[in-house]
Amino acid sequence: xxxxxxxxxxxxxxxxxxxxxxxxxxxxxxxxxxxxxxxxxxxxxxxxxxxxxxxxxxxxxxxxxxxxxxxxxxxxxxxxxxxxxxxxxxxxxxxxxxxxxxxxxxxxxxxxxxxxxxxxxxxxxxxxxxxxxxxxxxxxxxxxxxxxxxxxxxxxxxxxxxxxxxxxxxxxxxxxxxxxxxxxxxxxxxxxxxxxxxxxxxxxxxxxxxxxxxxxxxxxxxxxxxxxxxxxxxxxxxxxxxxxxxxxxxxxxxxxxxxxxxxxxxxxxxxxxxxxxxxxxxxxxxxxxxxxxxxxxxxxxxxxxxxxxxxxxxxxxxxxxxxxxxxxxxxxxxxxxxxxxxxxxxxxxxxxxxxxxxxxxxxxxxxxxxxxxx
Amino acid sequence: xxxxxxxxxxxxxxxxxxxxxxxxxxxxxxxxxxxxxxxxxxxxxxxxxxxxxxxxxxxxxxxxxxxxxxxxxxxxxxxxxxxxxxxxxxxxxxxxxxxxxxxxxxxxxxxxxxxxxxxxxxxxxxxxxxxxxxxxxxxxxxxxxxxxxxxxxxxxxxxxxxxxxxxxxxxxxxxxxxxxxxxxxxxxxxxxxxxxxxxxxxxxxxxxxxxxxxxxxxxxxxxxxxxxxxxxxxxxxxxxxxxxxxxxxxxxxxxxxxxxxxxxxxxxxxxxxxxxxxxxxxxxxxxxxxxxxxxxxxxxxxxxxxxxxxxxxxxxxxxxxxxxxxxxxxxxxxxxxxxxxxxxxxxxxxxxxxxxxxxxxxxxxxxxxxxxxx
Lengths: 374, 374
Hints:
Two copies of one chain form a homodimer.
Chain A: H1 3-6, E1 12-13, H2 23-29, H3 39-56, E2 62-67, H4 70-81, E3 87-92, H5 95-106, E4 110-115, H6 124-134, E5 139-143, E6 145-146, E7 151-152, H7 156-164, E8 168-172, H8 184-187, E9 191-193, E10 206-211, H9 213-220, H10 233-240, H11 252-268, H12 270-290, E11 306-310, H13 318-329, E12 331-332, E13 334-335, E14 344-348, H14 356-371
Parallel strand pairs in A: 1-12, 3-4, 3-5, 5-8, 8-9
Antiparallel strand pairs in A: 2-10, 6-7, 9-10, 11-14, 13-14
Helix pairs in contact in A: 2-11, 3-11, 6-7, 12-14, 13-14
């Protein structure tokens, strides 16, 4: 493959992520790297970590960009908190809740699931029942923005229940952070994580993580070593905080990009940004409904960042529709995961991808493709 | 932090990694991303994986760029192969051999170490003795290029011993791949991994991994699930190979950069590139010796990629020397790790950093700084 062949085609990324990245952030990603102990890198990291706290709505000291994607952060947070034999209660209202269960089981936990039909929210009452039955629970976990269903999960009541049972509350914010309010501290979330390639508008490869003092103490008091050396919070914190002890070589170009993306976000302003995400999502859904493509997620709980819609019944080959959107128009949208495969489309309106221009382009492209598809 | 403040100072990276990245590779890293299921991405990945096989000197099908650094790859390979109670024999001639031991212990293995004084190579006889004593051994592991000591470990005899005892042979090639010959298949290495930010000349964040069919079969026959979901070979292979099942969102910008770096390497030619690394290292060592700065590693086994030298006795504050090199000349070199802290400097001549220009700049800068340091 020569250099010329390797240049990717321009894409409008409206799938479940990655979303499009602005030229300003891409320029930052392409800057010449510095070493992992360079004093300038720690200046940048300090600023970046402060900006992440602002976005998470937290004063948690231990807030940092994990080297890895959102899935790495899910496993990182779970493996620091969960020990073999621990009771954990996990909400499963879609694909990613299921992954939490899988990871907790590999960690040797006793997992109780609280389930909802895919496309609906988890009910606080179901958590109350589970917590009543299980006895001593170490951790309650759920997904804030289920990327697989487009559902936005209310968190307040579950947080209160978890704390009433002296359990930690861990939340996946991969598809919400930077695109809608998350309010980690106000809501009572002990541990949260996200990914850079969705609403933050940076390339994939980093995962913001925030850990409360309470969760840190629980992790510090564990009886067995953390099973994953690469994800061990004690070692990671020794690098991000003084004395900055070498753990691994952080991906400095991705850190440049994330810092630039956070600057963009704070310059836009969080309230303005969240309103933009909502407005663009509303316009998309209105346009799709006019084409008889209807939302999948429960009304009143639809994400402004990831729009799940039912594949119309007359479309026999939804994969072909998506392929044509990509090949003829350079627009990527996502298909369904797991049990929703073939049944829904997932259309991201996140970060730099959340624009009216993209909505209009997608609507006309989709109309054109659907008119000539079966 | 404003955008202008976030632009990093130009650095000549001659530490233990990251090394400098060429403008061509940086331009690739800054390209607009595509989705993780984009057909163009799999075309790129197929070409990239073929190039990695060429560099590793292997025909192993399962050769891929892991999302993570070299340390992630170390843990990824070990956690797929090692189960609780397994006997493993690990060579420890420096810091990174020690990390293998730590990770194997967390995995519940029974670890036998074969040690050498830091700065010297491991002796095959010591492996023979250990293998004789332990009984059934699943895995023999060691580091090819010890970044902490600058030692190049001969592999052939250890490979033969491992296979004679029906054990797998796993080798860390983080500081050798792309800068010197590694010959995975010819040497009898079953599993090897590296990092992109050293001799490959790409930014940090990816780790090439290669897995023999024999190692794959051992991993596939394990009794317990792989403890780390994010590193599970079965799941990773399902993404990199057909049917390309979603596992995590791969860091596409880093993949663009790695592919460009591999093109650069193959255009230069492996023999030419390896000779350049050796020549530049020889020039550096000659220049340093003229300044009475002497090599640390055992003669005859010195890496051409990472030059470990003793801090001269008259230098009381070696940290200050390195700080001045960075601040006054923009040149990064590394200090010692672990027991070698304060005793050696580690000077990388890797990838785009391995040039005569850099050697001359470093020698004059170091001379100037040492003349005015105590």
